[in-house]
Write a structure and sequence with these properties.
It is built from 3 helices and 4 strands, in the order H-H-E-E-E-E-H. By secondary structure, it is an alpha+beta fold. The chain has a 4-stranded antiparallel beta sheet, covered by helices on one side. The mean pLDDT is about 85.
């Protein structure tokens, strides 16, 4: 008797293993695609928020009148968001040098919470000095410190 030839085709176990491998691959690829879409949305939102914050900061950097900055401000952005900014201006020990704490909140109707950015920087603004007597005093103190450092006068 001759041995029986194996019929052509796949067994049920081989088909199930192939389907399992295919299903796992599809799940992994689908999850990766969703992660890429979420990351892209986050990056584009961050870029838009960064541009809005940069615009608000430029308003602060270019304003020569301190009294106009202290109340803060707000504006609508091109993307349909609302930007609200405020500043805290503090004098330093140097004349005409100020420490500025800049806070900007971007409210997006599609997001549950606003994006808040806080930055602190130092600005040289002679037009922001309010009291000329204090300004002269600070300049004299700076001049004295420089001379002390140069050892031209005794402390």
């Amino acid at each position: 008797m001759l041995p029986r030839a194996k019929p052509p085709g796949f067994t049920l176990v081989e088909v199930l293993v192939a389907l399992t491998i295919f299903a796992l691959s599809a799940i992994i690829l689908g999850a990766s695609y969703v992660n890429i879409l979420n990351a892209r949305a986050i990056i584009s939102r961050g870029a838009l928020t960064g541009a809005d914050v940069a615009f608000a900061r430029s308003l602060v950097l270019t304003e020569p009148d301190r009294t106009k900055l202290e109340p803060g401000g707000e504006f609508d952005t091109p993307g349909g968001r609302r930007a609200k900014w405020s500043v805290e201006i503090a004098s330093t020990i140097m004349a005409d040098l100020f420490t500025v704490t800049f806070t900007c909140e971007i409210t997006d109707p599609t997001q549950p919470e606003p994006d808040k950015t806080v930055q602190t920087f130092t600005l040289l603004r002679p037009t922001w000095s309010i009291d000329p007597a204090e300004r002269g005093k600070l300049r004299q103190e700076a001049k004295t410190r420089i001379l002390e450092l140069q050892k031209k006068i005794a402390p």
